[in-house]
Amino acid sequence: MRNKFLSLLLTLTSFTVFSQELTLKETLDNPSKVINDARIEIRVEGGQEPYTYKWSNPSTPLKSNTASGLTEGIPYTVTVTDANGLSVTKKYEVPAQSITEVFNGTTQPIVDAIGSVLFWDPFAAIGIYDPVMHDDSGAPLLHPNGDPRTISVPFIVIWLIIGGLFFTLRMKFINIRGFKHAIQLARGHYDESEAPGQVTHFQALATAVSGTVGLGNIAGVAIAIAVGGPGATFWMILAGFLGMSSKFVECSLGVKYREIHADGRVFGGPMSYLVKGLKARGKEKFGKVLAVVFAVLCIGASFGSGNMFQSNQAFDQLQGQFPVLEGNGFWFGVIMAILVGAVILGGIKSIAKVTEKIVPFMASVYVFFALVVIFMHISHLGSAFTEIFDGAFDPGALKGGIIGVLIQGFRRGTFSNEAGVGSAAIAHSAAKTKHPVSEGFVALLEPFIDTVVVCTLTALVLIFTGAYQGAEGLGGAQLTSAAFGSVISWFPYVLALAVFLFAFSTAISWSYYGMRAATFLFGKSKRVEFIYKILFLMFVVLGASISLGAVLEFSDMMLLAMALPNIIGLYIMSGEVREDLKEYVRKLNANELFRKPKPVKAANKEG
């Protein structure tokens, strides 16, 4: 009898335990060949309702049994917990089917690995500040999945800002005292038609500016203001001023160490000064390693950020305003490739002739409309600047405190003007000049135009109109378009055209950057140049035809990573540039540099 009782008790206990166990059944869905639209639905059996679902995907709420917008081929975890505290964790992966999904899923882990280096936060790692964001009551802000929201000071931003600050101090604020002389050079006051090179000072400037002014000035600024608040504008402007000094150093070196072949082709930029400049200091092997790393990264960035992203976003903006284009990305890409090809097949001279017309035109149009919007809201002038300065130094907790707003501004400023990345030095190497430092002066105007003028005007439009408030669900370009559209109803059409022209000019500039990196790695023959150009045009079509996802993120990181080998070289050679600057200023003040010198008060005498 006792044995029967124990057997019955064991059976009842086993049944109770089994009924309390959580069993998960899943439905995996991949509805299309488009990337990042995978879906996982969980059904729970057993346990006690209600259940919570802790997904590894931050955007999925705790109460949702369905996660959507997932990347195909990437594993996700979910922990389900019932009302009694019982929980179970499982991992799921929606298989990638199309080629783009497979490529995207394969690239994402690489992007995450590179991002863990470039966006590593050294300050948070050593406990200088708490990266968790809090509301005004001190409670931590959470993602929908329950993870805390954090801010970070990315290593790559620190790298670029410290570099800009170092060069500003090392060159004794050349970004301020050299500004007037830079304007005079860009306006052609000191052009030397007989000097070695292929393009004028202004053409080199226009080519380099066209490689930076683009969607980042329109969409990127909107996101920075929406996330960091108006105070981010102040730090963005400061980043632009510091970047002017970085551009001065790298472009001076780009001209100094360039090679000019008998056929007139110019080979310069970081690849040249990293090899030759460090060789002169007994660091030849180290210089070659840095140059090769830079060239590989530059080619990757040219095909992605400087190419596929441009055609992709140009098509996206135009089809948004002209529905007839919808679904015709391939043919749009073909047309854009033909237009780009018609320019780049002619080399840097052809590129410069186009950019010197497109860049001033589009910049003038954009600045004009921005000023119209600002003047229409001129009564908000005082309050807008109060928001900017108060937000810069005393931001609310919801914006991440002063660290959060500072990083939003610095991040947009540094990423927009590419100062320290080294790309502009390739364009400026082709300038007609006998004096390398003179091209450094011209180059320092780029961050001023890109960040201090264009980015700042975009920010002011967003702040004056108040469009950055309540911006949930809007992308950066949509936000800027809405801000302008609140005053000028037909402006979205102008913006779509502007994005296309900016994308076009960026693509032709980056084709030259990537081509020079390719000739450094594979030989300085015209055959290498031709093969690169054909591949570049194929990627223009590809970019307009597919969704980019992790491929674009990978390319963006390659562009930012170019700053690592480049700034190392700039640090080592900064003393040389400083001495060259002293000699240039001495000769300029003594009227010894140019045939027809004009009185110039461009730079104070060195102390």
CATH architecture of the largest domain: Up-down Bundle
Average predicted local confidence, pLDDT: 81
CATH class of the largest domain: Mainly Alpha
Number of domains: 2
Q: If helices are DSSP runs of H or I spanning 4 or more residues, what is the number of helices?
A: 23
Structural class: mainly alpha
- The portion of residues forming beta strands comes to 5-15%
Number of strands: 8
Distance between the termini: 106 Å
Point out poorly predicted stretches.
8-19, 597-607
Radius of gyration: 27 Å
Task: Please estimate the helix content.
Answer: 55-70%
Spatial strand order of the main sheet? 1-2-4
- Spatial shape: globular
Look up the CATH topology of the largest domain.
Amino acid/polyamine transporter I
Largest sheet: 3 strands, antiparallel
Please give the structural blueprint.
Elements: H1 2-20, E1 23-29, E2 38-45, E3 52-55, E4 66-70, E5 76-81, E6 87-92, H2 99-118, H3 122-125, H4 155-170, H5 174-177, H6 179-186, H7 201-210, H8 215-228, H9 232-256, E7 259-260, E8 266-267, H10 270-279, H11 284-321, H12 329-344, H13 347-376, H14 381-393, H15 401-417, H16 423-428, H17 436-443, H18 445-465, H19 476-485, H20 491-522, H21 526-545, H22 550-561, H23 563-589
Antiparallel strand pairs: 1-2, 2-4, 3-5, 5-6, 7-8
